[in-house]
Write a structure and sequence with these properties.
Helix content is 62%, strand content 7%. It has 540 residues and is of the alpha+beta class. It has a five-stranded mixed β-sheet with strand order 1-5-3-8-7, covered by helices on one side. Strands 4-2-6 form a three-stranded antiparallel β-sheet, with no helix packed on it.
């Protein structure tokens, strides 16, 4: 290779490296990392969700704690140690025997707890469903108990190594051995707690309660005043009705997977830099491939008034531009795709856990309709909260001006510019994917169908508009139809039909939210009438 060719190759490599470095800094600048708290939260949830994080942290604590206490022992007055009643004051042989016993015992108990955990996971997978395993794996008490055992084992090994003969300058680390004895007692108590905790953890009511609490937390994350005053004021923005007529570029995901999260602030910044509107049509939890169109980027026309907005460079206006390679790189960082469904702030995922428990309980192999009824009641509680709260807005805006702008410039600019439009599932979608799914599997179970009918009545107390009322009536009709087509005995079908008709009449009545609904079957009404007639005859 000639000198000239080598210089050209070096120049091309340098130019390419500088270009890549420039793109990296553009991609990961502070401007595009406006969702840094959410990204750190996701990272923390992934660490906590892994079964190794807390036990590994406990092992590191044990490894660091051993030399610290041994060092303290070197500078501690041994006469003062003897004055402590519970402190260890034996010789080196006794210290070695104690530390060896503690290390062997806690390691054996750690193996036992791990075996119990595997057995519980196997049973939970068959009874509640494989997607519920994460709730057991992320159980912090279980991880901490296992971490305490192996952390004590690591600590005991290192202290055992530091035990010397009395004829050496430094004798037995008495404080370190005393601390090991205390940790061994704590581990014994943790073993008792672990057994008691696992007994409660495998109960269906406990699992349903945990899934319900997670769903309620996610509901409050999305439905608690997310649509603020700024959004409400600009909800009639003219771009909302016009952006569909702009030049559209399809948006494809970078790879296949489940859509787990959308980083709105980063997406708003991306939309602002390219002078357009990003519309995401896929909802959280949906599976997409790299060939799916999950949305569109609508580029503003050249004569759009918001093109005059100022950038950080003085006297420079933002010019809309078509998506390029950097746009797709930045967009890949604005969404989070996973190869499997994981725990996130997705409401549908949390509700789906309770639905899965109910569907599996209705299977012929388990046949536990009471658990399905408990799931229906928990789902009703979650859905009633959603019906009373304000749903999040699908429109997200950004302000083109900062605090340094003058009043003259502010008067010529809109208060906010449409940047991102997302798809928000309606309450009818959540009812159909949760209670509706249970209805399809419980079509031949009168107990569950009645519980579903009662759920519609309970949700009626929380409704706030007519659309929700029509959704409940529609679901009641489907429940009635399912019972009429699948119940074996016509008496059972008639009983369910009567309850559904009374429930529909109750929901349609005025001021129903201030009255109590009580279903009385025809048989009960006949018995009550007969008893009343008999009582009148006796008095006569």
């Amino acid at each position: 290779m000639t000198k000239h060719a080598e210089d050209n190759l070096f120049k091309r490599l340098s130019t390419s490296s500088l270009k890549r470095l420039r793109q990296f800094f553009q991609l990961w600048s502070l401007k595009t990392l406006t969702n840094l708290p959410d990204r750190l939260t996701n990272l923390w949830q992934q660490l906590i969700g892994s079964y190794w994080f807390i036990p590994t942290a406990c092992v590191l604590v044990g490894i660091l704690l051993a030399p610290i206490l041994v060092t303290i022992d070197e500078h501690f007055d041994r006469d003062m140690v003897r004055e402590i009643t519970f402190a260890f004051t034996g010789d080196d042989d006794a210290a070695r025997a104690i530390m060896t016993t503690i290390a062997g015992a806690v390691l054996g108990v750690a193996g036992t707890t791990f075996s119990i955990t595997i057995a519980v996971l196997s049973m939970a997978s068959s009874q509640f469903g494989p997607r519920l395993l994460r709730n057991f794996l992320t159980d912090t008490p279980n991880q901490f108990v296992l971490g305490a055992f192996i952390g004590t084992f690591s600590y005991s090994l290192l202290v055992l190594k530091a035990i010397h003969k009395y004829d050496v300058g430094f004798g037995v680390p008495q404080l370190s051995v005393t601390f090991a004895i205390i940790m061994a007692i704590i581990c014994a108590l943790l073993l008792v707690y672990f057994v008691q905790h696992m007994v409660h953890a495998i109960q269906a009511s406990h699992v349903i309660e945990g899934a319900s609490n997670e769903a309620i937390k996610n509901i409050h994350y999305w439905y608690s005043d997310r649509c603020d005053i700024e959004h409400q004021r600009n909800i009639e923005h003219h771009d909302i009705e016009q952006f569909h007529h702009w030049s559209a570029t399809p948006i494809y995901p970078p790879y296949s997977g489940y859509l787990q999260q959308i980083y709105f602030e980063s997406l708003i910044t991306l939309s602002q830099d390219y002078g357009g509107v990003v519309e995401i049509n896929s909802s959280l939890g949906h599976f997409v491939t790299d060939k799916n169109v999950i949305g569109y980027f609508y580029q503003r026309p050249a004569d759009h008034p918001t093109n005059l907005q100022k950038t950080k460079t003085p006297h420079l206006a933002l010019v809309p531009r078509s998506p390029d390679g950097l746009f797709w790189q930045r967009f890949a960082g604005c969404i989070r795709l996973e190869q499997r469904l994981t725990q996130s702030n997705d409401i549908a995922y949390s509700l789906g856990q309770m639905t899965e428990i109910a569907v599996r309980a209705l299977s012929p192999g388990i046949n536990d309709p009471k658990t399905a009824v408990n799931c229906v009641q928990s789902l009703t509680s979650c859905l009633s909260i959603m019906m009373r709260c304000q749903p999040p807005t699908p429109y997200h805006f950004y302000k083109p001006l900062d605090e340094t702008d003058t009043p003259d410039t502010i008067s010529h600019q809109p208060s906010a510019i449409l940047a991102v439009v997302t798809r928000i599932p309606k309450i009818s979608d959540f009812i159909d994917s949760s209670l509706g799914e249970i209805r399809r599997y419980a079509a031949a179970d009168l107990m569950v169908l009645k519980a579903l009918c009662q759920a519609m009545i309970d949700l009626n107390y929380a409704r706030v508009n007519e659309a929700q009322q029509q959704t409940l009536i529609h679901e009641i009709k489907l429940i009635e139809r399912a019972g009429a087509d699948n119940l074996n005995y016509h008496q059972l079908a008639d009983d369910l039909t009567a309850m559904c008709q009374q429930a529909e009449k109750f929901i349609m009545s005025e001021n129903a939210q201030h009255h109590y609904f009580h279903y009385v079957s025809d048989f009960d009404a006949h018995i009550r009438q007969a008893l009343q007639t008999q009582s009148k005859q006796v008095r006569a």
